[in-house]
Amino acid sequence: MNFQSCVNLVSVWILPILLIFILTVALFKKVPIYESFVEGAKDGFSVSVNIIPYLVAIIVGISMLRASGFIDSCGNLISGFLNSVNVPVDVLPVMIVRSLSGSAALGIFSDIANNFGPDSYATKLAAIIVGSSETTFYVLAVYFGSVGISKVRYAMITGILADIIGIVAAVAVAHQFFL
C-alpha cells in the first residue's frame, strides 16, 4: 500500500473512529452524553448571537469597499509599482479583501481564475496569496467578539503585519516558481 492510499484510508476513517472513541470514553466515565451535547449547543447558539454585530460590520465594510470603487482606485494608483514587481493589477483586490473576508477573497479569486484561466500567473499568484494570508479582521471580530475582548490594537497590528509578510512572500514564491 502506497502513501497516498494510506492517507485516503485514514481520512475516510478518522472521523468515525474519533466519534466512537469519544462516545466510548464518555460511556465509561458515565458522562450524560445527550445532556452535554445539548448544553454545548446552547453555548454555541449564544456565541453565535453575540458575534452577529461584528459579522454585520465586516459584511458592510466589504460591501462599501467594493461598491465605492476604492479597490479599483487603489489599483489605478499603484499600478506602476505593481507592474514593476510583476504583480498583475487584477490580483490587488485579493490582497486587500483577504484580511477582511475569506469568502469575498475566494469570490475574487474565482473571478480571476475564470477570466485568466487556471494556469495563468495571476491565478497562481492569487491562489498563493489566499493560502498565505489570514482573514485578520474576521478573526478579530468573531473570536475576540465571542469572548468579549474589545482591545484588539496589538492583535490587529500583528495580524496586518503577518498578512503583509504573507503577501510579500507569496509574490516572491510566485515570481520564483512561475515567472
Describe the structure.
This protein is mainly α. The protein is built from 9 helices and no strands. The protein has helices spanning 3-28, 33-68, 70-77, 79-84, 92-97, 102-116, 121-132, 136-146, 153-178. Helix 2 (33-68) crosses helix 8 and helix 7 packs antiparallel against helix 9.
In short:
82% of the residues lie in helices and 0% in strands. It has nine helices and no strands.
Distance between the ends = 37 Å
Helix fraction bin: over 70%
- Note the overall shape: extended
- Number of helical runs? 9
Major pleated sheet:
none
Give the beta-strand count. 0
- Cα-based radius of gyration, to the nearest Å: 21 Å
The fraction of residues in strands falls at: under 5%
Mean pLDDT: 87
Structural class comes to mainly alpha
**From N to C, what is the helix and strand string?**
HHHHHHHHH
In oligomeric terms, what are we looking at? Answer: single chain
Q: What descriptors fit this protein?
A:
extended; 179 residues; mainly alpha
Which helices and strands occur, and which strands form pairs?
Elements: H1 3-28, H2 33-68, H3 70-77, H4 79-84, H5 92-97, H6 102-116, H7 121-132, H8 136-146, H9 153-178
Helix pairs in contact: 2-8, 6-7, 7-9
